[in-house]
Design a protein that fits this description.
With about 170 residues, this protein is of the alpha/beta class. It has a single domain, classed as Rossmann fold. The chain is about 25% helix and about 35% strand. The strands form two sheets. The protein has a seven-stranded mixed sheet with strand order 5-6-4-3-7-8-9, with helices on both faces. Strands 1-2 form a two-stranded antiparallel sheet.
Length: about 170
């Protein structure tokens, strides 16, 4: 099965000139979603993770079902102020300004092996920041993965850990 057949391209979203790759059509197709999660589980197996982390918000859709399928814990990476209780945070640079991501203070134990997931890799900024956040708390980030990679934005170059994607687009 070609996963790309189940990902919809939407031109000029969220603004003119951007081609948005929408996984909601993949999520809506039970057979394609099952195949995608099976392939992702196989990809992640090589990393032998203890925990899967998902980046807000579509990364939750990938990481949570995979964690359940693989018998692993799941950790949410969220924007500042979205998680209850004490948190660890990491501020990172954007093209114009900064942003902050957080995990709950008790979400991860030192030396746990973490794989960080999102739906799509574009510029790599948020994924790279997530790697740094988990390292700050003593986790070992053993890999990263997404359903979709936009090769032309070269986000992979910002990552210093293994990365895998189910499908990629060159433009």
């Amino acid at each position: 099965m070609d996963i790309k057949d189940h990902i919809r391209a939407i031109p000029d979203f969220p603004k003119r000139g951007i081609q948005f790759y929408d996984i909601s059509t993949l999520l809506a197709h039970p057979d394609a979603w099952q195949v995608a999660m099976g392939r992702m589980a196989k990809l992640l197996g090589q990393y032998r993770p203890d925990v899967l982390a998902g980046i807000e918000s579509r990364g939750f859709l990938v990481a949570a079902p995979l964690a359940l399928k693989l018998g692993l814990g799941f950790v949410m990476v969220r924007k500042k102020g979205k998680l209850p209780g004490p948190t660890h945070s990491h501020e990172y640079a954007l093209e114009y300004g900064t942003d902050t991501i957080e995990i709950q203070i008790d979400a991860i134990q030192p030396r746990q092996r973490v794989v960080i997931l999102d739906d799509l890799l574009a510029t790599g900024g948020t994924l790279a920041a997530s790697i740094e956040l988990f390292r700050k708390v003593g986790a070992e980030v053993v890999g990263t993965a997404c359903i979709v990679e936009l090769n032309f934005l070269d986000g992979r170059a910002k990552l210093d850990v293994p990365f895998g994607a189910l499908v990629s687009y060159d433009g």
